[in-house]
Each structure stands twice: as structure tokens, then as C-alpha cells.
Amino acid sequence: MGIIKAAVCHRFGAPLSIENVHLRAPGAGEIEVALDAVAICHSDITYADGGWGGTLPAVYGHEAAGRVRATGAGVTGIAPGDPVVVTLIRACGQCPSCAGGRPTGCETPYDGDRGPLSLPDGSTLHQAMACGAFAEAVVVHHSQVVKLPEGIDMAAASLLACGVITGVGAVVNAAHLRAGEDVVVIGAGGVGLNAIQGARIAGARRIVAVDMTEEKLATAREFGATDGVLATNAKPWRAAKQAMGRGADAVFVTVGAARAYDAAPRYLSGGGRMVMVGMPHSGDESRYEAANFAAAGQAMIGSKMGETVIRRDIPWMVDLYAQGRLKLDELISNRWPLDRINEAIADTKSGSARRNVIVFG
Predict the structure, then answer these.
(1) Do the beta carbons of residue 171 and residue 199 sit within 8 Å?
(2) d(CA 304, CA 100)
(3) Which of 136, 146, 292, 350 is 20 to 30 A from 96, alpha carbon to alpha carbon?
(4) Helix/strand/coil for 107
(5) What are the phi and psi torsion angles at 133 (to 5°)?
(6) Which domains does the chain have, with CATH numbers?
(7) Could you count the other beta carbons within 10 Å of the beta carbon of residue 100?
(8) CA 321 to CA 328: how far, in whole Å?
(9) What pTM, to 2 d.p., does this model score?
């Protein structure tokens, strides 16, 4: 059993504590990865603040990249020394969802209380989201990793584990966007910027970003938005429709705010679809008049992790990055050491950061 440093959450809403914890060796089908980088996602923050409940103490973090240190029995195609991206998408390969080509919906439960982490006294330390990557190393199931090319910047690569695949995947996998369609993206944060990139790559005609500040809208244009609308306007959907000349074929809600979901259908054209990406806190509700959706032939589509198949989609995105067609470096706001993770989280909560990344070594 190895000893590593990790950022541990003992109480919801409290600062994380940097501690020595135990990480067991990989078992059958598992891989140990020494991490080079882990990005801070708003999902980690929501969990640490108690927005979705869960077991404590816990180690969060699920958007990581590093090098394989060891493999358990039965692991093929990955060897010690290989650079990999580590995701939270753990797939059994056997359940109906996995067999149907939707590993993000794997129906085989994972118990993070019985994972590879423990406190020095042997007591339970929850491996959150099957990753626990706010740590120097992780042990995860082999289905959660994808091999990377040598030489890729690991901080940039870590973003592929969640924010990038969630945003781009929502466009290409969940919405099945066609070239020439019109798009609205509500929220120009980390996931929203990647939805904008996905729409640009997919050939959208107009891409309208909606956010609270002109600064965020300017950033959205850098990533491919053709137009920007302030969400603080009295009826921002009117300005968005004016920019497009019509309603949107697809509206992507990338923020975890019920109010954003309330407004989203107002941006749609007849036959349009609202793609639900951002996750509000448990218990938050939005309200819709069902007849409006039926009469206009509109749809609501949930998008979990961009409905990504990681061994198909991540290599494609890595290649786009190598070609200069997918921005990753530009998504990184700052790089922080692990012992400053609480500062990095506070900066992320301020709303000004695209993605903050914890780097090791």
C-alpha cells in the first residue's frame, strides 16, 4: 500500500485538507496512474459543497492526466510509462447501456467507499466519481483511461477527461448537430466554450453565446461564437433570434442553474431541441408548459458527459487539437500546486476562470 498526498473533504462547504492517505495497488482490471495534472470542474465543487450529497470523507477530482505506474491482472493495451487521460466514465461492458454503445449510462454500480483509498488509520475514504483525482495518484478501472500521444501537454490533456468531451460531445453525440443549423449556448464557462467549439467544428451557421458579462461573450467569440447576447437583458431570447433571423435548432444549457433551464425553450425554433448539459443542485426544479413542446414538435435531450465513447471520441479530439482545430491550451486560466487547491477552487467559484488546473511535480 502506497502513501500519497490528497486533498480531502471532511465537511461539506469546508476547505479541503492536504493529507497523506493510503492508495492500494491495482487489482484485476485496474490501472495505477501517477498524475501530472487534474483540472477543477464545477461538479467537484458542487459535490464538495454538498449540492448532491454523498459520503464523507472523500477525495474529489475527475478530470486528470498522467502516466501509468502499474497495471493489474488482465489489463491489455496499456503499459507502465504510457501517458493517459483519466475519466470518470467507468464502463462494465456487459450491462444493457454498455452493450448498446452508451458507456456513460453504465448500469453496474460502483461503491467508492470500497475503492482503493483509505485514511492512515485504515478507515473509509470515499473515492468520489470513481476517480478521486485531487491526489498525486489514482487507481481506476481500465475502462476509464485512454492512451495519449507522447509529448502532449498534460494540463491540456486533462481537460479532455470531462469539460471538453462534455461540451463537444453534447453537440455531436447528443444533439447530432448538422452543418448549417443554428445554435444557442447558454453559459460561456468551461463546458459552454467547448459546446461552442463543437458547434463550430460541426459546421453550425450561427452560434449565439448567452452569458452575464461582455468579457465572457468576448471569450466565446474567440472559441467560435458568431454572436453574443447578455443574459441580463430583459428578454435575451429576442436578441438571439434577431441575430439568427429565427429560433435555434439546438439550445445547449451548460450552466447548472434552474433559471437557465426555465428560459431555454424561448430560444428554440419549431422542431428545435433543448440539450440539457449543466446540472443544478438536487431538488432544484424548472417548469414548462408541455403543450408548447408538443405543438411546436420540440424536444428535451439529456446529455451525460457528452454521451461520449472515450476510446472513439478522445483520440479524435486529440487529433483535432494537434491540427489546431480544437483549443485546449486557451482553456487553461491558471496552473496551481496541490497545496493551493482551495485558492484555485475559490478562483473557479468567482466565475472568471475558464479552467484551473492542479499540476504535480
Answers:
(1) yes
(2) 15
(3) 146
(4) coil
(5) -95, 5
(6) 2-161+327-359 (3.90.180.10), 164-303 (3.40.50.720)
(7) 9
(8) 7
(9) 0.95
Q: Is the pLDDT of residue 1 over 70?
A: no
Q: Is 161 left (phi over 0), alpha (psi -120 to 50) or beta?
A: alpha
Pinpoint the alpha helices (H) of 223-357. Answer: 236-244, 258-263, 290-296, 310-323, 341-349
Q: How far apart are CA 211 and CA 257, in angstroms?
A: 12
3-state SS, 224-236, equals: CCCEEEECCCCCH
Contact 145, 80 (CB under 8 A): no
Q: pLDDT at position 353, please?
A: 84
3-class SS at 260? helix
pLDDT at 51 (0 to 100): 92
Asked whether 230 and 236 are in contact (CB, 8 A), the reply is yes
Lookup: cell for 235: 428578454
SS3 266: helix
At residue 361, the pLDDT reads 80
* Digit-coded pLDDT (tens) for 49-72: 999 999 999 999 999 999 999 999
